[in-house]
Amino acid sequence: MAAGGGALALLLALVLVPLVLLLWRRRGAGGAGRVCVAVLGDLGRSPRMQYHALSLARHGHSVELLGYLQSRPHGDVLRSGKIRLVPVADLRGLRVGPKLFQYVIKVIVQAIQLLYTMLKLDQPSYVLLQNPPGLPSIAVAWVACLFWRSKLIIDWHNYGYTIMSLNHGRNHPLVQIAKWYEKLFGRLSDYNLCVTNAMKEDLWVNCNIKAVTLYDKPASYFKETPLELQHHLYMKLAKDYEPFKPRTESLSWKAERSAFTEMDEKNGCVVKTKGRPALLISSTSWTEDEDFSVLLKALEDYERFINEGVKLPPLVCVITGKGPLKEYYNGLINKMHFKHIQICTPWLEAEDYPLLLGSADLGVCLHKSSSGLDLPMKVVDMFGCCLPVCAIYFECLHELVKHNENGLIFRDSNELAEQLKMLFLEFPTLEGKLHSFRKNLRASKQLRWDESWDQTVLPLLGQTE
């Protein structure tokens, strides 16, 4: 523990070096109307921070959106004249020496790199930082705000130390240091946002941090997809992914077909094909907090149900996203030989993802919060598209998924398999639970991101627009 504390002290000392070197350049800068939105992660896979940037721009702020540029952000972000992307190089780390040494060096280099990048920006009034990852970004953002005399807002999506504990265990020295660091520097923020009331209470009770709950809400473009747009999307995906291609040849040479839809080229009329498969979708960052073997085992049971004569449709299962465990699970998927189920794992363009959610029949969520205090944004987006969800149980999931109202909650693969059987029985002719869940979601008229943000965040910024 002492070695870890010494490393952290060295980190903070090295962080301050470039600050001193840059002081003479930054005196007298003004920050009115400017906000730095920062995440030490991939901007394209940080939708909530993109939403923050768009909301700030909508209210006239100039926004510097800072992070890794690995995946393309949404087109609305790229088209905004008020948002400037500030890339940060993604450091892969050293491959020499013990792992602890490699980690400490990486954190130190990241801190220097991040501070140097931030201090080259024009002085903002606020820095809005995503946590996690918080090491070293919270300390760096705090130092930058001290120098700029700006306000630091931390948006708590989860705790970094609980995510680290998935690999190392909760008693590992690195995890304990990260926990101490997160609590210490978290208290130095001016304002705090969080994603659930459970996290709000935990921040106050265990960290003495006062936060405001800003639930994830879907952006306006998460909605049910019209049939013509569904067909266009399916035809686009069919070029690269076999499950979207038609199962049989069209009876008419004038018809353009996908696995799910058919368009009469003469009059442009689109209909759903008879005997079409059901479309199940899940999205993931392919990390340790989502065990996709649960879904794969449930699909094996689903296949068995069909072989036993249960009247279930063939199934197309689409799992979207990027992440470290994708190759591992693709290896498992390739070993599975289904007759009635097809699985594909595409990476979708930002504009295509909501269209696919709005076209699907059922969403599945396998996110199990490392802290038990955050909620899966993928479910928020699915609900925005009026897409019913089966979600795996964890502590505060009830704040989002209402069992038997807008979806179902399961605890293991057997329960998920039974839910799939019940929901898809005699699909699509039988209007059962799946239909009633969708009907409830349509009737709920849930709050969208813009309205929620204006009610919750705008007052923190002292705006009166």
Automatic annotation (TrEMBL):
Residues 275-423 form the Glycosyl transferase family domain. Its EC number is 2.4.1.142. The chain crosses the membrane at residues 6-24. It is found in: Endoplasmic reticulum membrane. Pathway: Protein modification; protein glycosylation. GO terms for molecular function: chitobiosyldiphosphodolichol beta-mannosyltransferase activity. Keywords: Endoplasmic reticulum, Glycosyltransferase, Membrane, Phosphoprotein, Signal-anchor, Transferase, Transmembrane, Transmembrane helix. Residues 53-210 form the Glycosyltransferase subfamily 4-like N-terminal domain. InterPro entries: ALG1-like, Glyco_trans_1, Glyco_trans_4-like_N. It is a single-pass membrane protein. It catalyses: an N,N'-diacetylchitobiosyl-diphospho-di-trans,poly-cis-dolichol + GDP-alpha-D-mannose = a beta-D-Man-(1->4)-beta-D-GlcNAc-(1->4)-alpha-D-GlcNAc-diphospho-di-trans,poly-cis-dolichol + GDP + H(+). It is an enzyme of class 2 (transferase). The keyword Endoplasmic reticulum applies. GO terms for cellular component: endoplasmic reticulum membrane. Pfam families: Glyco_transf_4, Glycos_transf_1. Belongs to the glycosyltransferase group 1 family. Glycosyltransferase 33 subfamily. Mannosyltransferase that operates in the biosynthetic pathway of dolichol-linked oligosaccharides, the glycan precursors employed in protein asparagine (N)-glycosylation. The assembly of dolichol-linked oligosaccharides begins on the cytosolic side of the endoplasmic reticulum membrane and finishes in its lumen. The sequential addition of sugars to dolichol pyrophosphate produces dolichol-linked oligosaccharides containing fourteen sugars, including two GlcNAcs, nine mannoses and three glucoses. This is Chitobiosyldiphosphodolichol beta-mannosyltransferase. The lineage of its organism: Eukaryota, Metazoa, Chordata, Craniata, Vertebrata.
